[in-house]
Specification:
single chain, alpha/beta, 4-stranded antiparallel sheet
Length: 358
């Protein structure tokens, strides 16, 4: 649990006292998530350092898990951080001479954990880097280095995790993966998550938001009220504008309706005028073919029937008449030839008999 009461931070400069934070108040229950948002220079990172015990406020108090860290010396705050706090920074802060596995195991070894390497390997597997355990930071991409930093932070099983712009140096796709990883581990491990971000989508995923402007705290209720008031004013403006425009709209609509009625009436009159001669022409066109149809239908069968039925018997009768005499002429010719042949044959026989007598 985190409790912040009237925390302020001022620093002295040549131009006078500069106020970085002014009376910040906050309560965050264990296991919840908080997003600290605001423009650059609003004091976000300074507040995060004070909450983690890395810096002291000019006034006010901060308690972590019931311990007032602002009343402790540096060694006392370091002990609290070692027992309860984990960090994910924007610039990774990996040791270049150690492998990914050794970077994750280092804080565990400093705590005296005998299974430091085994625990480190487990959390590297959780962030999807079980095949990269022997690689050095220079051999890893930006997203992979940040995943090593996340594994290192969660490996110590902190009760509170502070993340300062954890995806600030990453592209959008890789940043989304790191954000999902942070919230997944936060939910699974029951860790309280406090992060500084410029990303509104990321801040919207947190249970609470602390908005800073010029070192001053702007409560969510006030922001919502301002937004609601602006929306209400906009709605009133729209309603007023609509009310003013309504009479004008009615008169325009009425004028359009009258004009439309006139056009319809005129169109109907024109159609009616054209329809009368058209109807007469149609009737005339229908009557003409009807008168011509009577002779056409009766004449056709008569003309074809007369020659077709009488021509055939006449042709057959002529042929039969001509064929009959020809048939009768044939026996007469045969009889004539036979009559001539008989006397000749008799004469020849008589001549032969006379010669034999002689």
């Amino acid at each position: 649990m985190i409790e912040v009461s009237n925390v302020s931070k001022q620093v002295s400069t040549l131009e006078g006292t500069l106020s970085i934070l002014d009376k910040i108040n906050l309560t965050l229950v264990a296991g919840e998530s908080l997003a600290i948002v605001g423009p650059s220079g609003s004091g976000k990172s300074t507040l995060l350092g004070i909450l983690a015990g890395l810096d002291l406020p000019t006034s006010g108090s901060v308690s972590l898990n019931g311990q007032n860290i602002t009343a402790m010396d540096e060694e006392g705050r370091a002990a609290v951080r070692a027992d309860h706090v984990g960090f994910v920074f924007q610039s990774f802060h990996l040791l270049p001479g150690l492998t990914a596995l050794e970077n994750v195991a280092l804080p565990l070894e400093l705590q005296g954990d005998k299974d430091a390497l085994k625990t480190a390997a487990h959390y590297l597997q959780r962030v999807g880097l079980d095949q990269r355990t022997t690689h050095y930071p220079r051999q890893l991409s930006g997203g992979e280095q940040q995943r090593v930093a996340v594994a290192r932070a969660f490996a110590c099983r902190p009760t509170i995790l502070f993340a300062d712009e954890p995806t600030g140096n990453l592209d959008t796709g890789t940043g989304d993966k790191i954000n999902n990883l942070l919230f997944d581990l936060n939910r699974e491990e029951g860790t309280t998550l406090v992060l500084v971000t410029h990303e509104h989508n990321l801040a919207a995923r947190c249970g609470q938001r602390l908005v800073l402007t010029g070192g001053r705290q702007v409560t969510e209720n006030l922001v919502k009220k301002k937004s609601s008031a602006k929306k209400t004013a906009d709605n009133k403006h729209v309603v007023t504008k609509a009310a003013v425009a309504q009479p004008k709209s009615k008169s325009v609509a009425k004028a359009k309706a009258v004009a439309k009625a006139k056009v319809v009436a005129k169109t109907q009159a024109v159609v009616k005028t054209k329809a009368v001669p058209k109807a007469k022409a149609v009737a005339k066109a229908k009557a003409a073919p009807k008168a011509k149809a009577v002779p056409k239908t009766k004449a056709a069968p008569k003309a074809k029937a007369v020659p077709k039925t009488k021509a055939a018997p006449k042709a057959k009768a002529v042929a039969k008449t001509k064929a009959a005499p020809k048939a009768k002429a044939a026996p007469k010719a045969k009889a004539a030839r036979k009559a001539k042949a008989v006397p000749k044959a008799k004469a020849a026989t008589k001549s032969k008999n006379q010669d034999s007598k002689r």
